[in-house]
Write a structure and sequence with these properties.
It is a single chain. By secondary structure, the chain is of the alpha+beta class. The protein has one domain. The protein has 2 helices and 3 strands; from the N terminus they run αβαββ. A 3-stranded antiparallel sheet has the order 1-2-3, with no helix packed on it. A hairpin with an 8-residue loop joins β2 and β3. The model has no long low-confidence stretch (mean pLDDT 85).
Amino acid sequence: MVVAQFCDMILTNAGRNLLAKCIKGKQFRFSRAMAGDGVIDGYETIPNPETEREQYIEFMNTVAEMTNLVSPIREMEIRGIETPPQIGTATSLAALSI
């Protein structure tokens, strides 16, 4: 089994809206997990926030508006959600069959 960990996740505007609903008491249920790839138009690389601040802000605003992957490849089976002892974290477990 291979375990993938992703850091520097970005919460989109749609994600923020969903989080706000959860804070108000609406139950959240993962319905799917997807794997994909691709490059956002106009951004071959992610701008460096320290040396390309304006471009980085523009990039982050572009990502915040996204509602889907650039190029979805495969749906993954959701196997569970874990809430480790760290405050403000959760781990979703999904299986990707190749």
